[in-house]
Amino acid sequence: MNQTHHNFDQETKGWVDLIHPREPRSELTTQIDTKWLVIGAGFTGLSCARRLAELNPTEKIVLLEAREIGQSASGRNSGYAVAHSHFSGGYQKNQLEHYQRIDRINQTGLTSLKSIIEANQIDCDYKDAGIYHMAADKNSSGECDQFVDYLQKRKIEHVELSKDQIKLELGTSWYQKGVKVKKGALVQPAKLVFGLADSLPHNVELYENTPVMELTRGVINTIQTPKSSVKADNVIMACNYEPLANGKHKQRVVGVTLSGSITRVLNQDEVDLLGTESSWGVLSLHSGGATVRLTEDKRISIRNTAEYNNHSLLNDKQLKSRQVIHRQAFNNRFPELRHVNFEHLYSGVEGVTANKTNIFKRLSNNFYYAGCYNGSGITKGTAFGLAIADYAFGSDEKLVHDCLSIEKAKWLPPKPILDLGAWYVTKQRFKGVGKDR
Ligand SMILES: Cc1cc2nc3c(=O)[nH]c(=O)nc-3n(C[C@H](O)[C@H](O)[C@H](O)COP(=O)(O)OP(=O)(O)OC[C@H]3O[C@@H](n4cnc5c(N)ncnc54)[C@H](O)[C@@H]3O)c2cc1C
Questions:
Q1: pLDDT digits (tens, 9 = 90+) for 223-248
Q2: Residue having the nearest C-alpha atom to atom 37 of ligand 1
Q3: Which of 119, 265, 358, 400 has the fewest Cβ atoms within 10 angstroms?
Q4: 9, 47, 215, 242: which to mutate for ligand 1, most atoms within 8 A of CB?
């Protein structure tokens, strides 16, 4: 792995800006040896390091993060911690095992997060009240019917919602129909990832602003960072789309850039225009549709763009032009609140594979990789982190078997074909999106 020319972009916009700043841990500047090294401190790496620390209470676990905590997808996502995934296209009997496996993984992640949040009293606006899936147009309405059929067949607790019921609960007449899946939680993502990093077990050494620039694999792996080197018996890569983006491994993942806006805090009169629910989260039943939340602190967040931007965040000019799209979607849903300004504008990059699967892999004897959740990685990333730690440690957990049984990610062509293909496929995501955007 050679990251020399890679730009680890970060800027504090969005969810991180809404909370108390956190003092980052220091950069690694000395040479160290360790039995366990984890690269990347998002949900996957944090969960993996925590689990390794439990499994090896007398060993030091080193966790290296290129940026500051909260600057990756784990601090920039929309905060839906799902228990049940939405598989588009309706129920297929021969996929039952797959559905069950994914939901077991999601739920292991959710249970793990909940217990860490409770044990460490992490204040992250965690709300265990289910997730809305909504349809505003024809295609998504068809998808809604299929999703309800799926939920019924799988006996997953849910409530179907008419247009009037949605208006009553959320205060918007924009959606035609929807369904609320009762299990699933909402979080403030930046608060959560800060809390997870600051409550790591004492034997985890976290270093921030410490990118791994070079890695030589061997019986002992050698890692180069700008000011240090690490010799590690075992390495776990939890770097999402980044380590594969530049080279030596076969390319199986791309970074897709999403953007969203968050309003100022609404006043009580404005909140009264909304429905009976005090806070909520809507996922779209169209893959290009908007995710919309009323947060615990009474802001509305809306995220509805996705594009291939060469694995990078959007610059200020790009962000401003995307905000026009956020604004339109906001005004459509909340015409009485069109005077409410956006205070925050952000982008984030998610790891996506061609066949919408994830990566869970032993690349060589003492070298592992877990990641890429196609926009749904809070619970799944947490579970994959646990599982990859168990796998590397040699534990024979059911979760490890579940992660190993997931379909393998398809190979992707190198640049420039990759760029064209990724651009095209991401654009296709919006086909037929209509009013769901
Ligand atoms: C805008 C947006 C909205 C989303 N909404 C949701 C949602 O509502 N629900 C949901 O479940 N998921 C959502 N996702 C997806 C979710 O955020 C990700 O799947 C998840 O955060 C991935 O976690 P991770 O730890 O695998 O990766 P990341 O959070 O990307 O962490 C990987 C870390 O590795 C570090 N790294 C990379 N290379 C190196 C290196 N060479 N050396 C050291 N460190 C390195 C990076 O800096 C980064 O911090 C969303 C994503 C985005 C972008």
A1: 999 999 999 999 999 999 986 434 45
A2: 239
A3: 119
A4: 242
Asked if residues 368 and 388 have their Cβ atoms less than 8 Å apart, the reply is yes
Give the bridge partners for 91, in sequence order: none
Ligand 1 touching residue 86 (CB < 6 A) = no
- Is ligand 1 within 6 A of the CB of residue 75? no
Determine, yes or no, domain membership for 105. no
Residue 420 has, within 13 A of its CA and on its CB side, a CA count of 5
Whether residue 380 lies inside any domain: the answer is no
Q: Which domain covers residue 143, as residue numbers?
A: 120-188+255-354+427-436
Cα-to-centroid distance, 371 and ligand 1 (Å): 9
Task: Provide the number of structural domains found in the chain.
Answer: 1
The C-alpha angle with vertex 198 and arms to 27 and 362, in degrees rounded to 5, equals: 70
Ligand 1 centroid–CA 15 distance in Å is 14
CB of 281 closer than 6 angstroms to any ligand 1 atom:
no
Residue with tokens 């919006």: 430
Query: Does the pLDDT at position 415 exceed 90?
Result: no
pTM exceeding 0.85: yes
SS3 64: strand
Backbone dihedral region for residue 96 (phi beyond 0: left; psi -120 to 50: alpha; all else: beta): alpha
Kindly provide the residue ranges of all beta strands, DSSP E only, lying in 244-365, ordered along the sequence. 254-263, 280-284, 291-294, 300-307, 342-352, 359-364
Q: The domain that contains 148 carries what CATH number?
A: 3.30.9.10
80 located within any domain:
no
Is residue 363 in a domain? Answer: no
Residue 238 Cβ < 6 Å to ligand 1: yes
